[in-house]
Design goal:
82% of the residues lie in helices and 0% in strands. The protein has 145 residues and is an all-alpha fold. α1 packs parallel to α3, α2 packs parallel to α4 and α3 packs antiparallel against α4. Bound molecules: ligand JUQ.
Length: 145
Amino acid sequence: MLDQIHLLAAVTVLGVMEQAYFFLQVIYARRAFGISPPKISGPPEFERIFRAQVNSSEYFPIFLAILWQAGLFFHQGVAAALGLFYLCARYCYFMGYKTSASERLAPIYFSAGVLWILVTVSALGVSHFFLSHYMGLNILQLLTA
Ligand code: JUQ
């Protein structure tokens, strides 16, 4: 059973570590710019780091849910590989946003593209499950017959 989820588990741990790293970056920036909670405004250099962390956190639950769904209903290896691409893109997004607002754009488009692929394969995988489970219709068997 663990064989079907170990790659997804590895990507999940990596993703949580990345989130922790982003959070630490905000703490360091708060110290460097002297901005204590609950304040969230300050110089643009601080606000870009803060927004990069908040925006990345916002998409993390969606990413995790769709990563596991794609891995369980479609293909674990494919989902885990796409998950790694997504986490790399998020890292580039964070580093780009730290530099300037425009440098975050290319990684966003890339990570959004990867997320759409994960959503698509999840939908395919779960549709296939519904068709075969409730209607006895196995599309994969039909295609290869
Ligand atoms: C919402 C729900 C599901 C999305 C792609 C795929 C699925 C994104 C839009 C970001 C940011 C950062 C910033 C990773 C609709 C065309 C989605 C989804 C969105 N899209 N934005 C933005 C906030 O700095 O501006 O991280 N990420 C996305 O996906 C694109 C969507």
